[in-house]
Amino acid sequence: MRICALAAGALVVLLGAGCLTPGPHAHRPPRPDAIEVRGAWLRFRDTGPRDGARLPVILLHGYGSRLETWQAIQDALSSERRVVSFDLRGFGHSERPPGPYGPEVHARDTLALMDALGIERAVLFGHSYGGGVALRIAVEAPERVAGLLLVSAFALESQLPPAFRWAKQPGLGELLFSAFYQELPGEKYLLAFHDRRRFVTLERIEEIKTMMKLPGSAYAALQTVRGMHYADVEEAYSQLDLPIRIVWGKEDRVLPVAQGEALAAHLDAPLVVLPACGHVPPWERPKALLREARRLLSEVEP
To answer: For the whole model, what pTM was predicted?
Structure first.
């Protein structure tokens, strides 16, 4: 009897797991800072001079994050050049429409956003998952990318955690994301920072919960994982001919610094390791990261 009850309970969970649904698509801008890109309204922030001689910078945030990741860096650079950040499709305050997700889709969105904003060529800064998106853009459209700043970047097939590999399996992914996507965001958030007392606050945890509860969030998160295919582009990374700089937090517990060393070797690019820093250098060490950003920009614009 107990086995039957457990089996019935598992069946209920599995049936519920198939109910991950995308979010709606608005026919009008859902907010004043939204722009329609390839069938989705994306929240964006466009700052700095439009007519300057310096190259614009495009900022790409990580998996499950939003444009605020880069706010300090964007504010600092906006006095000298145009800087654009945006919430990737499926995250932050951008829409979560039906369809495929992943680095390839987000790369195409970025290029389409650049087209919509009249940006021919830019320097790309990518944090975590956004680093993989930036690299894919550089591979697929090298003429549009002048340089890359990769921060705690997630861009190699070997970096995929076991849970993401499991989630690629039909049925199992729905089960995992239905059951656990909104579970324990505070504990997950703790892993991201070295100085947890300063950055892991109740206010920020509530903000994360609010984002995760938006319609289509679990669907978009799962579809993004299923679109994470890096093996097909890894060989092309080494063929890139542009300035690249890699920055990593020494105390990163999400993607340990050994992964930064592997990526640096793969790209034959310099790796700068920041002490007293976890997975989010744009928040924990913005001044140090800004120095590295300016060094990259000086290579791009000697």
So the answer is: 0.91
pLDDT digits (tens, 9 = 90+) for 125-151: 999 999 999 999 999 999 999 999 999
d(CA 202, CA 180): 20
What's the distance, CA 13 to chain centroid?
Answer: 29
Axis-axis angle for helices 202-212, 217-226 (nearest 10):
80
CATH number of the domain located at residue range(s) 26-159+228-300 in this protein:
3.40.50.1820
The structural domains of the chain, with segments of one domain joined by +, span 26-159+228-300
* Antiparallel, parallel or unpaired: β 34-37 and 271-274: unpaired
Q: What 8-state DSSP symbol labels residue 275? A: S
Residue count (the chain): 302
| Per-residue pLDDT, 194 | 81
What are the residues whose beta carbons fall under 8 Å from the beta carbon of 49, sequence distance 6 or more?
80, 81, 82
* Sheet of strand 271-274, all strands in order from the earlier edge strand to the far edge: 34-37, 40-47, 83-86, 57-60, 122-127, 145-151, 244-249, 271-274
Q: What percent of the chain has pLDDT over 90?
A: 76
Residue 203 tokens, joined: 């206010």
Q: Angle at CA 202, nearest 5°, toward 196 and 208?
A: 95
Contacts for 164 with CB less than 8 Å, ≥ 6 apart: 225, 228
